[in-house]
Structure formats: structure tokens, C-alpha cells
Design a protein that fits this description.
The complex is a heterodimer of chains A (282) and B (638). In chain A, 39% of the residues lie in helices and 23% in strands. Chain A is of the alpha/beta class. Chain A folds into 2 domains: 118 residues, Periplasmic binding protein-like II (D-Maltodextrin-Binding Protein, domain 2, 3-Layer(aba) Sandwich), CATH 3.40.190; 129 residues, D-Maltodextrin-Binding Protein, domain 2 (3-Layer(aba) Sandwich). In chain A, strands 1, 2, 3, 4, 6, 7, 8, 9 and 12 form a 9-stranded mixed beta sheet that branches. In chain A, helix 10 packs across helix 11. The longest helix of chain A has 15 residues. Chain A starts with a helix and ends with a helix. Chain B is mostly helical. In chain B, helix 6 crosses helix 7, helix 18 crosses helix 21 and helix 26 crosses helix 27. The N and C termini of chain B lie close together (7 Å). Classes of the chains: A alpha/beta (282), B mainly alpha (638). At the A-B interface, helix 1, strand 1, helix 2, strand 2 and helix 3 of A face strand 1, helix 6, helix 12, strand 3 and helix 18 of B.
Chain lengths: 282, 638
């Protein structure tokens, strides 16, 4: 018992005193960038930064609204519903990069010849009107749709693209997957699987992103140029959110992410940095 | 073991009425009140917060199969079905294997081997559920997907996958409690049966099994309670599909479909989304209430049977009325044995063929039981070997001393270990006084009936799904107290969670205290309180230590109670306050990285973390188990 007490006392005594703790929570898509930026600032500026990914983008927005964190991470824009829920919060969106939500299939689907789908195709799959890949030019294989769990930025972007508004998405339940790795793992190991996933995570081996066919029959790949030019329909901004204008440590953090070194981290994790958006598009 | 006092020390050690309100008694009352109060507060809080959804959906909340929170539809039928289906599969697999293994261990193995088997099984019980989840997501779901290919599964995430994983997780519970039930049958009766010419197998079949029947049923029910409440592992492999009811609930095909359970819903993203929306939140808490009621009911029935079944008076209580109390008296038991319909003794004139057939049946049954035991022990060894095989390469000095870098792909888990240690140390500090109070109340102050009731409260606490501790902490500590995520709330929750383990260890230790110590203390004129502090407490220290270590082993591996309340993914170091002071932890690290890791190198670190967590848990258990098992057996024989 005494050993324990001494140990605990040592632990607390050894605790170095930091200035205020900067707390960040939200999207697992933004997380790798923010977490690595935090590592740099922790080492170089001796800042203490807590990072969590509870509840995805929606979790980030609500914990910012509740005042539990100073920065929220989000891979979707803050909706009117969010603002209604937290009337006193002044959500400020800081654009740090861009990502695309891809319609991602397992390798066997790709190999059976499915390369591109139209918006109508995807909607029919989602609504259960198309249930076999042969209807989309593939082999005779049942379509297994994995939905993303609620609160994920991908889902909101997907719903907006298909129905104009996530609220108008019909009530249909599918198997759900949560994080990006879980999605990659489960979809990659299931025959005939399809899901929506950040295009970065489609590794081209187990998971392959389909092109989206527009009205003119042109297949648009979710690549950098198409995301930057917004030709690819399901691109989405990545945000850091603050309540009011960023200040203090939050500002320091955001400034770092927007700096060349921070933007390099955005690119490193496969997203488009802000300058790529400017050069390639509008 | 004749020098052992009965469970309640009351007969020789009744505290005299006028001196009841000593400090010690007050301490025991307060500690007991805290424990019972927690259970009541949890039920009351959940019930109160559930009201809005009942007003909104009425009975449809239970009977409708439409859960779409965006459309304000809350019908939880499919989750109730999923919970039941998954648990039934788990029990259907774990009960026969566990009971078979327990019979073989308790009736056929020599004592030394038996102890080894028991330790292995207890270690199996200590493997954290998030580690099971990891194994489930990376191996078991693919195994199920490939094995049942002919059924054209949607994916490897099915109710069956979750059920199998749960079966492994509850196997130790079934086995340990069944073993207890069988050991509860006095050895003298077996000897008498052998003396009458029954084989070892016959003694088992006609003496041990019939008497242990109730205890075995209790073991299965208590394991079922466990299965109903498991969240993390199920969450990762059940598919989490809402509103899916199979065409035919009773076909085996139904189990090969994905589903949702009450716990997987509570472990998911909707909990965070729901908060702040009274109706949606009520619907979520309502799921917790349902889970609490279902698991609680099963546990209470199991606990009631268990207290009845393992009570030494059970046998004679059935055989000869009024003699219950002296059941430990061997002569009475032998009389009792005679009054039972006499077990069929093999007639000497039986034909040879019949004997041969009997021998064959006996032989193959025992072989099957031995096989069950091998499976149970083998599972443990395979699991540990697999984890260290995958994670061993990550284990290095740097891994233990550095903090996370590159979002888990590089660096180490120093602060995760620190966080886990802070959490379990806090849990220990919270738990110890309450456990002491409960043990004194149960072992010293309470008479038999009250002690039994308190025992059931302990079972109930033990059977409360861990995710509900998380939900309770989220409501009370995180939101109501405004602590945010804090190491303290995690420590408190884990402390209450480990309460039953520590208390039972203490009670059993008090139970085996030599009676003469107490008599000596009484003879010296010491008061009840003085006897407690100078004899009982110092003498039961070993119970406290072993119980605490086992409790800590369980607490260290828990994810569900701390994920909403105490632990975050990265950046937390040493806490410098109570509010807004989260810690990192090992189980949550695994839980997050199993769902989200951007870099293939994370996998190695992930398994390394699992191995490190397992090391801590196994170490704590291994130190405690031999002594704990000895006390337990002595107490059971008392």
C-alpha cells in the first residue's frame, strides 16, 4: 500500500505545470492533421493540447457549443440545426483544406468492371432499387452497402449530394461502420461491398474509389484537380471551428495549421491544402 | 477445515445492542449506504430521464421496429431482439463447454492440476473486452464470413460473430461458478458414494450433479447477465444495423445477419449526438434503463439461486427439515444421503455387455468433458500467444517511455500507461473504504438474511453493464457537475465497478478467520469495534490485497465506463486539477485506433498496446490469484 501512495505522490509532484490546456475534439478525418500539428506545438512551444475524436464532426460541433473544447474539428459545414441547438455560440469556421467523399468499393467489384456510377445509380442503391452489381455493369454479386454511423462528416456530405439536404434522406437502415480504419477493414474484406469514405483512404488495393458520372456521361475521378475545381460533386471543406474569433492558444494553433508547415501536414495526410485549391481552381 | 467460523460471525460475535452505534458501525452503515445508494440513484436517474420518450412513443418504444432519430422515431424492438439473440448464442455455446469443463476440473482432475486450470481460466476472465473486440474485428469476423460462405452472408459482422465472441468472454464466468457449485457438494458424500461402490463417474452423476443443479443454473444465469451487458467487443463485430428483424426469428439463418444490440447502440455515436435534445437523449437513456432492468433481473434471479445453491444447508434443507443449520456435520449428511432415493448401485449380476456399454458411455462423456477443459485452457493460451505474436515486436523500452507520435504510428504509450495507472489508483482509493464497510456489514454486523440481501446487491452491482457506468458518469460527472472529462470521474466509476470483487474477497477472508482469534479477543474484553480493528481488519488484509489486485486488473481493461467520462485520444499528460483534466488510457487507445488509424504502422503499435495492457492485467491477476483461490475454496468449504 505504501508503495502505491509514494508512487502516486511522485506522479502528481512530477506533473509539470503548463499554461492553459488547449482542447480539441471532433472529426476523425481532420484528426490526423490536428494531432500531428499538436505534436509539433507540444514539442516546440511547450503547449499542452488535448485531442479527442468523440462523436466525429457532430461531436466536435456540440462539444464546442457546450464550451467543453476551444477548437472543434469538422469535415462538414456547421448547419442551421447546429446553430439552433447552440444559439449562444458564434461558430467560426476556419477552412484548412479540402477532401472528397468517394463512393468506395471492394476490390472484387472493381475487378468485375464497375468503374463509375451516376448519382441516380447511387440513389437507387441506397434506396434498395438496385441490389446487384450486374445492374451497374459488374458481375452477378449482391450489393452490400455499409452506411457510415450518424455524425460522420461523410454521411452529411453524401446525404446533401443525393437529396439536397441530409434531413431529406429517407429512413433506411444499413449496417454501420464508424471510423475510417474500421470502414477500410470491413469494406475491404467483404465481397460486393460499397460505402462512402474519404477518398484518401481508398488505397487502390483493397478499396477503390469509383468515378462519378455526370449528366454528360463524363466520369469524374475524385482526384486533386477535380476536387479543387469542384467538378467532383462530393468534395467537402475541412474546418477548425472556434466560438467567436480565435484567440490565445487556439489562435496560435490555427495559425500554425494555416502556415506552410501546417499546410504541409494537410497534404501529407492526403487532403488538398489551401494553395492547391487556389492554383488549380477558382 | 473444522476451525472455520460460519459466514456470519453473529452467533458468537453478536454486537450487543446498546453499543451498536460505534464509529465502526457508523462507518459500515455509511459505506453500505453509498453502495446501495449508487444502485438506487442509477435506476432512478435513468428512469427519470427516460420519461420524455415514453410520453412521445408510448409502448411503441418497446414494440415498434423503427428507430430513426432524424425523424423522431424511436422503436427499440430490434435492439432488444439483438441483445437477446447475441446473449442466447453466447450462453448456448458457453454453458455446455463451461459446465463440462467445470465437471472435469472439479471431479476428475487432481488438486494440483485443478489449481493450474483454475488460474488459467481466471486469467481468461481478465482479458479486456477491447482486446476481444480487436481479435473479433481482425480475425473472427473473417472466419465467420468464410465459414458460412454457402449462406451468402452480407458480411462477417453478424449476431453469430458477436455471440461467439461473447461466448468466449463469459466462458470463465460459467466455468468458475459451476466449479464453485460442484465444490459446494461435500466431499464426504462423494466418499460415501464411492464406498457404496459407485464409480467416480457415478458419484459425479448421481451425487454431485443433482446437488449442484441449482448452482449450475445460477452460473448460467449470472453469465447471461454478463453477456447481456457487454458493449465494446459486441460493438465492433455486430454490424450495428438498426431496425433489422429477420423473417423468422427462430431460424439459424437469422443469426447470420447483422443486427444492433442495446449496448452497441449505447457505445456508438448517437450518444454524443443525442445530448442536448431531450427527446433523443431520453430515447438513449431509455435503452440504458432497459438494459439495466433486463441484466438486473437475470442477475438477481441468478444471485438468488446462487446464494441458495451454494448454501451448505441446501441439501439437508431438502432432505430433512429443520436440520439445515448443522449441514456441515458429516453424520447428518450421511443420514441425509440415505433418505434420498438411493442412487442406483451397479448390480453384481449385470451382464458383461451392459458394463462394457456403460464404460463406453462413461469414457466418452469424460473425454468430452476433458475436451471442454482443453478448449477453455487452449483458448487462453492461443489468445495470449496471438496477441504477443502480433504485438511483441512493438514492445521496446522506447515504446514504454515515449509519448504517442504521428497519431499513434510512432513513439510510445507512456502517458497511456500513466493515465491507466492514475485511473486504477483512484479507483482503489475510492473502492477500499467502501468495500471494507460492506464486508464488515456483511461479515460481522448483518444476520443471515440481511447478509444474503446485501450479497444480492453485490451481485447486482457486479452484473451492471459497464457501459451504464459510463452513461451514468456522463450524466452526473461530465454534464451535471460540469467536470468535462476528468480522471476523477473515471476513477470513481471504476472504483464502484470493482467494489463487488474486492468486497467478496474480503468477506471470504473474514469467513475463514479462525474462530479462536475472535473468542480470544472477546475473552480479553475487547468491544466489537476493537475486535474489528485489532483482529478482523489486520487478519483480512490478504483478502483486501488479492481482491484489490483482481479488481484493478478488471478496471485497467475497461473501456466503456471511461470513454465518455475520463479519457481522450491524445495530448493529456499529468492532470493538474479535477475538472477538465482527462487522461490517456490503454484500452481507449486500442478502441480508437481499432476504428481509426491512417498509417499501416499503427497496426503494430495497436497490438503492442494490447500486449502491454494484457501484461498489466495478467501481472496483477497472477500475483493475486493463487492466494485468492485458496481463500475462496476455504470459504466455500466453510
Amino acid at each position: 500500500m505504501r508503495g502505491w501512495t509514494v508512487f502516486a505522490a511522485a506522479l502528481f509532484a512530477a506533473a509539470p505545470m503548463f499554461a492553459d490546456v488547449l482542447k480539441i475534439n471532433g472529426s476523425t478525418t481532420v484528426n490526423p492533421v490536428a494531432a500531428e500539428a499538436a505534436e509539433v506545438l507540444r514539442a516546440e512551444q511547450n503547449m499542452e493540447i488535448h485531442i479527442d475524436t468523440q462523436g466525429g464532426s457532430t461531436g466536435g460541433i456540440s462539444s464546442l457549443g457546450d464550451g467543453l473544447v476551444q477548437i472543434g474539428m469538422s469535415s462538414r459545414t456547421v448547419s442551421d440545426k447546429d446553430r439552433q441547438k447552440y444559439p449562444s455560440a458564434q461558430f467560426t469556421q476556419i477552412h484548412i483544406g479540402e477532401d472528397a467523399v468517394a463512393i468506395v468499393v471492394s476490390r472484387d467489384v472493381w475487378e468485375s468492371g464497375v468503374r463509375a456510377v451516376t448519382r441516380e445509380n447511387v440513389r437507387d442503391v441506397f434506396e434498395g432499387k438496385i441490389v446487384n452489381w450486374k445492374e451497374l455493369g459488374g458481375a452477378d454479386q449482391r450489393i452490400v452497402f455499409f452506411n457510415r454511423e450518424p455524425g460522420r462528416g461523410e454521411w452529411e456530405v453524401f446525404g446533401k449530394w443525393l437529396y439536397g439536404d441530409p434531413k431529406k434522406v429517407p429512413a433506411i437502415s444499413y449496417q454501420e461502420v464508424g471510423g475510417n480504419e474500421e470502414t477500410r477493414n470491413k469494406v475491404g474484406s467483404t465481397r460486393g461491398a460499397v460505402t462512402l469514405l474519404s477518398s484518401v483512404w481508398a488505397d487502390g488495393k483493397a478499396l477503390i474509389a469509383l468515378a462519378i458520372q455526370d449528366e454528360n456521361g463524363q466520369a469524374i475521378q475524385p482526384n486533386g484537380a477535380n476536387i479543387a475545381s469542384h467538378k467532383y460533386p462530393m468534395s467537402r471543406p475541412l474546418f477548425l471551428l472556434t466560438n467567436g474569433a480565435p484567440s490565445g492558444e487556439a489562435k496560435q494553433f490555427i495559425d500554425f495549421v494555416l502556415s506552410p508547415r501546417g499546410q504541409e501536414l494537410v497534404r501529407k495526410h492526403g487532403y488538398l491544402s489551401l494553395d492547391q485549391l487556389v492554383v488549380d481552381g477558382k | 477445515m473444522t476451525a472455520i467460523a460460519p459466514l456470519s460471525l453473529s452467533p458468537t460475535f453478536a454486537p450487543s445492542r446498546r453499543k451498536r452505534w460505534s464509529f465502526t458501525f457508523a462507518f459500515s452503515v455509511i459505506g453500505t449506504a453509498v453502495a446501495i445508494g449508487f444502485v438506487i440513484a442509477m435506476v432512478a436517474l435513468f428512469a427519470w430521464q427516460t420519461v420524455p420518450v415514453l410520453q412521445h412513443s408510448g409502448s411503441g418504444y418497446l414494440t415498434a421496429n423503427n428507430w430513426h432519430y432524424r425523424h423522431e422515431l424511436f422503436g427499440a424492438l430490434s435492439m432488444i431482439y439483438g441483445t437477446v439473440a447475441v446473449s442466447v448464442v453466447a450462453v448456448a455455446i458457453a454453458a455446455p463447454v463451461g459446465i463440462g469443463a467445470a465437471i472435469f476440473t472439479s471431479e476428475f482432475l487432481p488438486p494440483r492440476v485443478r489449481v493450474v486450470v483454475k488460474i488459467i481460466i481466471e486469467l481468461l476472465a481478465g482479458i479486456p473486452s477491447v482486446v476481444y473486440g480487436l481479435i473479433g474485428i481482425l480475425y473472427l469476423r473473417n472466419f465467420v464470413y468464410d465459414s458460412f460462405e454457402t449462406f451468402d452472408l452480407l458480411s462477417g459482422d453478424t449476431l453469430l460473430t458477436a455471440g461467439i465472441l461473447l461466448a468466449v468472454m463469459i466462458l470463465p464466468t460459467v466455468m468458475t461458478l459451476s466449479d464453485d457449485a460442484l465444490r459446494g457438494v461435500p466431499a464426504l458424500q462423494r466418499q460415501a458414494a464411492r464406498g457404496l461402490g459407485l464409480s467416480r463417474f457415478g458419484a459425479m452423476l448421481h451425487i454431485a450433479l443433482p446437488q449442484a443443479r441449482v448452482g449450475l443454473l445460477a452460473a448460467v444465469l449470472l453469465a447471461l447477465g454478463r453477456a447481456l451487458g457487454e458493449a465494446i467487443a459486441v460493438f465492433l463485430v455486430v454490424g450495428r444495423q438498426d431496425n433489422h428483424m429477420p423473417a423468422n426469428v427462430f431460424s439459424l439463418r437469422a443469426l447470420l445477419e447483422p443486427g444492433q444490440t442495446l449496448t452497441s447502440k449505447l457505445g456508438g455515436a448517437e450518444v454524443n449526438i443525442a445530448y442536448g435534445d431531450p427527446l433523443h437523449w431520453a430515447a438513449i437513456v431509455g435503452l440504458g434503463l432497459m438494459l439495466l432492468l433486463i441484466a438486473g433481473l437475470v442477475t438477481i434471479v441468478g444471485a438468488w439461486l446462487e446464494t441458495r445453491g451454494s448454501s451448505p444447508s441446501m441439501y439437508s434443507g431438502r432432505g430433512i427439515k429443520g436440520e439445515g443449520r448443522s449441514a456441515n456435520d458429516s453424520t447428518l449428511q450421511l443420514t441425509a444421503l440415505h433418505k434420498e432415493p438411493s442412487p442406483p448401485t451397479p448390480s453384481l449380476s449385470t451382464r458383461r455387455g451392459r458394463i462394457r456399454r456403460h464404460r463406453f458411455i462413461e469414457g466418452s462423456t469424460v473425454t468430452a468433458f476433458a475436451f471442454c477443459t482443453t478448449i477453455a485452457c487452449g483458448l487462453m493460451l492461443v489468445l495470449i500467444a496471438a496477441i504477443f505474436y502480433r504485438g511483441g515486436s512493438a514492445l521496446s523500452w522506447r515504446f514504454f517511455t515515449e509519448q504517442i507520435r504521428l497519431v499513434g504510428a510512432d513513439g510510445g504509450i507512456f502517458f497511456n500507461i500513466v493515465g491507466t495507472l492514475i485511473l486504477i489508483f483512484t479507483a482503489l482509493v475510492v473502492c477500499t473504504p467502501i468495500a471494507m464497510a460492506l464486508a464488515l456489514m456483511q461479515g460481522v454486523y448483518f444476520r443471515k438474511r440481511a447478509a444474503q440481501r446485501l450479497g444480492i446487491v453485490l451481485y447486482l452491482l457486479n452484473g451492471t453493464p459497464s457501459i451504464l457506468f459510463g452513461l451514468f458518469g456522463l450524466i452526473v460527472f461530465v454534464k451535471f457537475f460540469g467536470w468535462g472529462k476528468s480522471w476523477l470521474s473515471g476513477g470513481i466509476l471504476l472504483g464502484i465497478m470493482m467494489l463487488p470483487t474486492v468486497t467478496v474477497a474480503l468477506i471470504e477472508r473474514i469467513k475463514v478467520l479462525p474462530r479462536k482469534y475472535i473468542e480470544a479477543s472477546r475473552g480479553l474484553g475487547l468491544s466489537t469495534s476493537q475486535t474489528i480493528w485489532s483482529v478482523i481488519v489486520p487478519q483480512s488484509r490478504s483478502g483486501l490485497v488479492t481482491g484489490s489486485l483482481l479488481g484493478l486488473a478488471r478496471a485497467a481493461g475497461e473501456t466503456a465506463p471511461i470513454m465518455f467520462t475520463a479519457t481522450i485520444f491524445a495530448g493529456a499528460m499529468f492532470p493538474h486539477g479535477i475538472t477538465e483534466s482527462p487522461v490517456l488510457s490503454l484500452p481507449y487507445h486500442i478502441f480508437v485506433l481499432a476504428q481509426d488509424s491512417f498509417d499501416p504502422r499503427v497496426a503494430e503499435k495497436l497490438w503492442g498496446t494490447a500486449a502491454a495492457l494484457l501484461l498489466i492485467v495478467l501481472l496483477l491477476s497472477l500475483i493475486a490469484l493463487p492466494m485468492r483461490l485458496r481463500t475462496h475454496e476455504e470459504a466455500a468449504g466453510a
